[in-house]
Amino acid sequence: MSTRRSKLFCDRYRGLFRSYAADIRAATAVEFGLLLPVFFLLIFGIFEVGLALLLSLNLSTAANAGAELLRKAAASQSVVTESDFRRVIASNFLLGTTEETMKITLVPIPDADFTAVPLTFPVENKFQAPDKNAGQYLLALGYNWQFILPTTRLLIPSGGKRPQLQNVSLAITAVRVTE
Question: Partner of 167 for a Cys bridge, out of 32, 59, 149, 176, CB 3.0 to 4.6 A?
Fold first, then answer.
């Protein structure tokens, strides 16, 4: 009797197993569950890297606007203040900036010697008002951006605790001519 019972038991569960083995919906659900996080990571990664590249290009545009302000001020013999300089750069940047997010360094280059310029990374706020003696300036912009994914921080160079999109630009307001 026990053999017959075990045979019925095996037949019943064998039929049940066959129906689950033939049903591919469970396998699809498992595959979907395994691939969904990878898919979202890929989509958000593409979005964030694209946004970082856009902001980096935008930093370059803002740096060019700051250099243009310096050139115009030198040509018209007017004084550039830090607030005007910051306003021009912020108006040419895509996102709203504050003292905390946008760091601006403007330092003169003495005697065309780039190695003598005290520039630190990550970029900090350091504004030296342009004077009539220096004709070349080093302009460094840094934007402290909070990334969505922790893996994107690996692509962006940072010199400190906070990742920073950076741009270093040369602003020439006058050229020294020697004979």
Answer: 59
